[in-house]
Batch of 2 targets.
Target 1
Amino acid sequence: MAPSSKGLNGKLEKPKSALQAIVLSDSYNYRFRPLTLDKPRCLLPLANTPLIEYTFEFLALAGVQEVYVFCCAHADQIRTYIENSKWNLASSPFSVHTIVSRESLSVGDALRELDSKQLITSDFILVSGDVVSNVPLKEVLEEHRARREVDKNAIMTMVVREASPHHRTRASTESSVFVIDKKTSQCVHYQANERGKHYVSMDPEIFNEHEELEIRNDLIDCQIDICSNDVPALFTENFDYQDIRKDFVYGVLTSDLLGKSIHCHVAKENYAARVRSLQTYDAISKDVISRWVYPFVPDSNLLNQSFTYQRYQIYKEDDVVLARSCEIKACTLIGAFTKVGDASIVANTVIGRNCIIGNNCNIDGAFLWENVKIGDECKIGKAIIANDAQIGHKCTIEDGAIISSGVIIGDNVNVTENLRLTPHESHSQGIPNDPALVGDRGLGQEYHAEAESEDEEELMEASGLIHRVEDLNLSDSEISELSSSSEEDMDFVPFSARRDSANTINSDDFDEGDFNKEAQQSIERAFEENHSIEIAALELNTLRMAMNANYHEVRSAIILAILKRISFVDAPPKEAISKVMARWGPLLLKLTFNHDEQVDNLFTLQKYCIRLTMEKQFLQLLGFLYQLEIAEDDAVLDWYNDSRSAEGDIAVLRNTYGKQFVDWLNTAESESEEEEDDEEDDE
Amino acid sequence: MTAKDIEHTYPAVSNLIARLKSRKVHKPFPVAVETALVMRQVISQTRWSTVDQLLEAIRAVGSSLVKAQPSEFSCGNIVRRILRMIREEYQDLLNTVEEEHINKERANGSSTSSSVTTPSSGLSNDQLAERNEPISFQMYSSMLNLLGRPVPEAYPQDKNLGDSRVTGGMDMRAVLIAGIQEIIDELDKINTDIEIQSMDHLHSNEIILTQGCSKTVEAFLRFAAKKRKFSVIVAEGFPNMQDGAHAMAKRLANAGIDTTVISDAAIFAIMSRVNKVILGTHAILGNGGLVTYSGAHLVAQAARHHATPVVVCSGIYKLSPVYPYDLESIIQLASPGNIISFRKGDLISDAEILNPYYDYIPPDLVDLFITNLGGYPPSYLYRIMNDTYDANDTIL
């Protein structure tokens, strides 16, 4: 019967090789833990429909004929789900195959495996299993193919959606920056977000090669990529590539040898987003309910549900039982067989099937999955309550709480903000079934992330359900200080611009040389990977010798890197300075050998402080240099008295903070001399 | 037959259901054509021994198609027409068999009266046992009793009993498929049937107002423009139709018609100068009301205020016996992206933005329907409805 079903479709599609799509069902991170302990992310319900359904619908819209689903965690569940889904029927517009590869730990591993399996025949679509989109890919595919005809090296087209920097649907952790050539829509530079990194560093060559560039920090990167065969092959060649953006795109774009190019399609209409974190889960759920993803809205009943739309964006399935006195407010979705008790108020909430909500409850902004039971007089904020969870009477569940499947909460319990509860004891460090947390006869404990590094934990925090713009602004405030009152949306732009103008002015200076750039990178790497001082120094020395540079350049580079580091650490400036200097000051000390070089350091510091507008921090930095004996008193005095320090606009620092410090130095010296005198006198 | 069964028995149906749900197929015309094509497949795949089994199968398929996208009325309309066609063909067959029988009886003289009940086609005994009750008769009588309407043509009940078995053969299948082909052919030439009437309605130097884009209206205007000179004002139908409206205005202008595009806000202001409003429609409902694309109600109200006649051009396949009991379920909401850019993050997280795709125009605002069968006032639609659909099929 299959051919007959394809009859109508078949005529429309070209008889070329089938369009293939790879769905990566795993996200390779733990942002949805503890929810993903029992269920893979792609099967989590979004507006009562598993996420992967949205991805499949999107692929069906794109005219895909063959889909390969890569499973890693919970592979059996995904496989069973797909086998029983409508996509496995004869009427499905494409054939679905699941590939289980439990060993793969990253996108890179999955693509390497894909390459080894030789399944791909032509250009394919690579998406993750949590994409929600209605962008028609047909044009993008044609664009991509046309480009490929002309240039075999255009290996990939990324599809991104235009949004705004603080858009709710844009993950707060996802501030990746795309630099796109306006004419050819080639992506010439990519920078993934790094916490606290609020600037973009680009090869100045890029500006020579391209007439008009767009530097964009307002794109939702939902990781819809149209890739050629070369992409998996490149992953195989570069066995250390893990992430498709951070490693692969960055690697390809910065490599001079490969000569491959990557393009970027900025979708200006339609919807595209990816459920990357709990915060985007919340946002995308809202987008679905406010119909941005049309036609993939609840009342399309893609899964043979029975939703109907009602005024004020309320969706109800058949067989919902609502008490006469309960109140259902706007933006709410209620699944079949759910009961809402007397005088309960439900607003902005997604409720799954078979839930029972007691009397006098107040639920605002929550996500209740299936079979959830809620007692009387509960108050529930923006929390996720997963399948089969039970909540007793008179409980309060605050914003950001996550209650995983099977957790039972007793009566009169207050679940605090951002608390994650799991029934799995092995993932907790707290007391099992602690009555203080889950009440009497409760079941569940606080989830403890087995974070491998601090970064992961930071990400966990950043990926919480509540999207706090205030928090974001806090970390940005330091930057705002630096870049005066520029719009926060644009925070990186004036900064990089300033860097740029500075570079052009001092083009005769060393620090635009290749060495400086390489050294900067090396030091930044040391910062990020927390190398020991010895290793960092060794690396710099090697670099120095390889590039025939002198120690002055090395030290300039270190000072510049330290200053940059200070301005990007998320902490008040004072703490930042002491933290960075205490850790990395010794590196400078290690490469400073005599008096003249100490003076030289001070000159460099002075110059850079002006250039990076960090005048206010100069005094403290000076103090640290002194304290760490990178610049001893004589050196400071020599610097102070040298006429070069009083030249031009850098003189300000000498005349204000420099003077202050020297004065202090003099008094301190005289005091100590006095002390010595005293001691002598005593003798 | 449940939805699951349909999915398994007719992949083509579930394929169409999926495409209706994801709006890959939308707009009345493509939906009507696709439905007819799918129904042709269903008829050729279905095995039936009595006509009631066939009717039941078609009805089940039709009901799941209608449920998939209730706002695509033309889908249900085509199903209803096919159901009626089956009944008619069956009736014809029945009549011929009867005639033959009478002739035979006459030829044989008064040989037997029991021969009536003997099976005329080669059916096995098991099958016969299954059908010891004449379902066709049962359905007719019970349903008609329910509606409290007299039986249209009284069938002698015992005569039906034997003759219903005649229809088990393949001959009827061929007839039905030919019938569906006829429906498809009719769909294909709807615009030509409608446009030839334009000379009676469009006169020289008139100012015509239309909204959005409709292939039928466009054909209607262009046909008249061959001989007459008149001007057309196109209201753009923001937010969902403006691209189509602009394109249609351009085509009209290229055809030599004096065309003006106005924004929807100017409709009322300009209405006093308009001689006639010509609208396309998404569906015509049982009460003569219209389901149109959003903005058309405004046009109709403005026209009523200025006593400007409102003429609706539409193929008869858009005529649906459904009544607008629940307007909210009829007026679908589309993505708000056409109204406000998704980029405006602050706004969209705070504001509720609605983009109704359809509009409902009550029947009293429409003066004339021009269909492929001719022009009718709204009050006359009931007659066409009765001619086109069987009263039993109103609810699928």
Target 2
Amino acid sequence: MAARGCGGVWRQAWQRGAGGPGPGPGPSPRGQRAVACNAKGGAVPAGKRGLAPWIPVVGLEIHAQISSNSKLFSGSQVQFAAPPNSLVSFFDASLPGTLPVLNRRCVEAAVMTGLALNCSINKKSLFDRKHYFYADLPAGYQITQQRVPIAVNGSLSYSLCIDNKMSQMVTKTVRIKQIQLEQDSGKSLHDDARSQTLVDLNRAGVGLMEVVMEPDMCCGEEAAAAVRELQLILQTLGSSQAVMAEGQLRVDANVSVHHPGEPYGVRTEVKNINSIRFLAKAVDYEIQRQIEELENGGTILNETRAFDSKLGCTVPMRDKEGKQDYRFMPEPNLPPLILYDAKSLPANMNHQQVINIDWIQERLPDLPSVKREKLVEQYGILPEHSFTLLNEDGLAEFFESVVKQTQMKPKKVIGWILNDLLSYLKEHSLTVKESPVSSFLLADLLNLLEKKEISSTAAKQVLAELWKGEGKTPLEIVKEQKLGLLQDQKELEQICQAVIDGQENEVIMMVPG
Amino acid sequence: QKVSVEVLDHLEHLALVDFRDSEGVERLQKAIQFADQLHEVNTDGVEPMDSVLEDRWCLYLREDDVTEGNCTKDLLENAREKVEEYFVAPPGTDFLTKV
């Protein structure tokens, strides 16, 4: 099921409905979208048998692990792979007599992220306890910010290609409801064979930023694009490394459908989404499932479902009996978190104890959107090129490095980067850092081309040879394979004459004609 | 005012507490009655207090240094059951069912 923008999915669901018994509208003409996007941007697909169209609504709850040395409320280390229960302090294990002590770096990370997402930073935010029982939550509650989070009311802009054409990009915005600081839980390994759960608390207490996105999205593609942009922003800020595969970025999707003009439908929560690609699939599947369920006269339960990546579908999660009652209460061991700005900076306080929002704002690095604009302006490349450059870790830097080392115009260099280099990397599943062809080598090659010492075709051959990583320079390869363009007129004449001489008969036959 | 059976079940489930006999339930009802006296205070227009420190800024910020951890042996010492440095717990949320 390809998520080709909002159009692709709904055509499928629609056609499936039309395939059933009874009269139905015929399949849409080839190439024409069965879906029109309404003014709000949401897909409004035609239901089967002339039923009213559906508007899908998608919201996201994203947990980003904060990139810090130690945990949110304790001094144990934050590290991905380590021997079980080796990165656990007495507080993390919830032993009696221990107290939380807030990590300054985690607060700064949350403020940076809030500012980058255009949020209002709450100068006074509070911590609360969210209670539930689970083996990997030794305290029986999670410290979070339910009443007054650290940042609220922001926005995130992201771009989508229309109809899969990179040349037609549209910008969308999703509102950020809030960002809150909270603790991560430990990890449970279920051993069904021996009917037990093994618990590793290394992750318990690691700082998380929960980013809540309002339900402004309408399909898997939008959700995926929004999360991708958030990922790039977090990585640029350094507040989180946001690698989904290592659990540093976790996304839960809230999905519902309703008819235009009617109130929002019952929503389901979809969990266990492990990549951006699966996020798009999971969201689109769930939307389709809900539409089919409702069109068949069924109802949607307000439940939590897990995405099964192998089957490509969502299934109800076990262990979720009824609505949870978290019994929120203020965290009695933590006073309010107070942040300052230039105006409210206290006079006689230890600098280490003061967090200045304005100071952080001034030091924010260029966000991806700004970087893209600068690339387009500085090098005259197309906007869609800037997207691809930033989408691949290290590619923009590689490009700029080549441009510095060659006389070839950036507009020509970009073609070599995006068409040739990038496709090689993708073919061999390599990152830019792992490229056997360095920016120096590529620049060297492009210089030969620019000076017209080789043809474009020959350059591609040389690149293929360079890719083998045998340590030869472009010039060496050119000489070896005799790919050099002949510049000497006399030499050219000699060769042509030799050819003609060697084919005397053919020439004689050709001349009269 | 009596505590309904539904509320009782709900509380037992949430708090993992077994009220067991009528004496336990009686005690619970008396505790609720006692706490209800708080309703006699008029709190209109009064901000809830969540810290006696009030506005005196006092939340200590720690530097991001690794100062703890690496005490697996100590932590596992009191565990009733362990498997290769993992704590062992009943599967899923089995501990919610009554003994």
